[in-house]
Design a protein that fits this description.
It is a single chain. With about 450 residues, the chain is of the alpha/beta class. The chain folds into 3 domains: about 160 residues, 3-Layer(aba) Sandwich (Rossmann fold), CATH 3.40.50.300; about 170 residues, Rossmann fold; about 80 residues, GMP Synthetase, Chain A, domain 3 (2-Layer Sandwich). The chain is built from 13 helices and 19 strands. A hairpin with a 4-residue loop joins strand 17 and strand 18. The longest helix is centred in the last third of the chain and has 15 residues. The structure holds guanosine-5'-diphosphate (2 copies).
Length: about 450
């Protein structure tokens, strides 16, 4: 048996799972296999994504097997497939928007501790953008709008899938895994985005950066038609500012044109490696700021919190404390997020921004060797034994860092996938402290072994 990574296509009937399956696998290759224990055939096929062979499973057609509620059918059809997935493609119909069955299924899926890529299908010709955005509410990250039928967005999807696949795991019986050499840093400039609520001072900041740092190239077409990027340079090299058309346009014309919307921020952060979340410090932390921060975390980007308008803050000590208290409580999943205070208007304090961005980038790229990791892991297990689940103790065996950008760890053990959230948090917090990973998203994947 080959050990190909498994990608499972899930979602309610009629959202276009089979169509997507055929797109990815190609009709000719698609093979239908009889799976014992499943009343209907399950479609499986293989696809090559960025040079990597993967197995793709389509759960469509399995719904009829368990005729109770729609959710029950979806869940029954997907349970075994999701159990073996390395990545789940959760599809919704962007035209229909998020239905109760989608929401219900998403809630279940979130508990399965599997990487999920949310797909808003039937979005051909940029149709149904609002409905696709609504899918953020499912809590499964950024929806990827595409059209399986028309083939739009499929190449992008393939790249996104490839990015999320676990690195090839060379497991050799009881031995601790070798360190992986994968995941080399791509050459090229650090990609940074400036995001935040309208009026936080993003355009002012952009203008300042462009005015003070040497601009080494002019505007150039970015990765998508809506984005324009500009290059800055600091003493460590180039920084590509991935920018949305709106922010750039505003900065150039030098008058408050449209306010950059939060959804534009979302577009920008998807293209960035480090995201500078800009706040108007005179207003404190707003719920929407936290929403953007959580999105940055879910997307796995490094984040720097920029407290702008520091010139207008009266009690700086109290303001700083109020903001860090709020972050400690509301953003525990990004504990230690770096904070920079400055005034984009006057330029005071701005020199701290790019060094902080560089540092956040380094942390996000961190690698821990398997040796160090497992010495630490054993101490953690001794300090607090893993909890009992169904009266039996979980046997956690070893950990390895599968990738960086953001740091992603895999924990192997018998029934490891049952590990309660509190213990996961204990491990993630420990990783953060011991290996100096403040403010960066940390992923912990659980892998059951026999
Ligand atoms: P499944 O039940 O989730 O496997 O869905 P299917 O793949 O069978 O598709 C359900 C219906 O949606 C079919 O009529 C497809 O032709 C249609 N469909 C699939 N993808 C798209 C798309 O990208 N755009 C549109 N407009 N229709 C689509
Ligand atoms: P954007 O919507 O995030 O792009 O925000 P703008 O850059 O358009 O700024 C909104 C308003 O805040 C403008 O009136 C700016 O002059 C003002 N502003 C921006 N940065 C600062 C700052 O550092 N201090 C003060 N006092 N005002 C600022």
């Amino acid at each position: 048996m080959s050990k190909l990574p498994v990608v499972v296509i899930a979602g309610r009937p009629n959202v276009g799972k089979s169509t997507l399956f055929n797109r990815l696998v190609g009709r000719r290759q698609a093979l239908v296999s009889d799976m014992p224990g499943v009343t209907r055939d399950r479609k499986e096929g293989e696809a090559k994504l960025r040079g990597r062979q993967v197995r793709i499973i389509d759960t469509a057609g399995l719904e009829e097997a368990a005729p109770d509620t729609l959710f029950g059918r979806m869940r029954a059809s997907s349970e075994s497939a999701v159990g073996q997935a390395d990545l789940v493609l959760f599809c919704i119909d962007a035209r229909a928007g998020v239905t109760p069955a989608d929401a219900h299924f998403a809630a279940w899926l979130r508990k399965q501790n599997k990487p999920v890529l949310l797909i808003a299908n039937k979005a051909e010709g940029a149709a149904a953008t609002a409905e696709a955005l609504e899918a953020y509410s499912l809590g499964l990250g950024t929806p990827l709008a595409l059209s399986a039928e028309h083939g739009e967005g499929i190449a992008h999807l393939m790249g996104e899938i490839a990015d999320r696949l676990p690195e090839e795991v060379r497991a050799s019986k009881a031995r601790v895994l070798e360190d992986e050499e994968e995941n080399e840093r791509p050459a090229g400039p650090l990609r940074m985005a400036i995001v935040g609520r309208p009026n936080a001072g993003k355009s002012t900041l952009l203008n300042r950066l462009l005015g003070e740092e040497r601009m080494i190239t002019g505007p150039e077409p970015g990765l998508t038609r809506d984005s324009i990027s500009v290059m800055l340079e600091d003493e460590h090299g180039p920084i590509q500012l991935v920018d949305t058309a709106g922010l750039r346009r505003k900065a150039r014309i030098d008058q408050p044109l449209e306010r950059m919307s939060v959804s534009a921020s979302i577009e920008a952060l998807k293209m960035a490696e480090v995201v500078v979340l800009t706040l108007d410090a005179t207003l404190g932390v707003h719920e929407q700021d936290l929403q953007i921060a959580r999105l940055i975390e879910r997307e796995g980007r490094a984040c720097v919190l920029a407290l702008n308008k520091w010139d207008a803050v009266e009690d700086r000590t109290a303001t700083r404390k109020a903001i860090s208290d709020r972050l400690e409580i509301s953003l525990a999943q990004m504990r230690g997020i770096p904070v920079v205070t400055f005034s984009a208007l006057t330029g005071a304090g701005l020199h701290k921004l790019l060094p902080t961005v560089r540092r956040a980038y380094e942390i996000w790229n961190s690698r821990v060797t398997t040796g160090e990791l497992n010495r630490w892991f054993e101490e953690m297990l001794e300090r607090h034994a893993p909890p009992l689940v169904d009266g039996k103790r979980l046997k956690l065996r070893y950990m390895t860092q599968a990738k960086s950008r953001p740091p992603t760890f895999i924990l192997f053990g018998t029934r490891a996938e049952m590990l309660p959230d509190a213990y996961k948090r204990y491990l993630v917090n420990g990783l953060r402290e011991t290996f100096h990973l403040p403010g960066t998203p940390i992923r912990l994947q659980l892998r059951g072994t026999k």
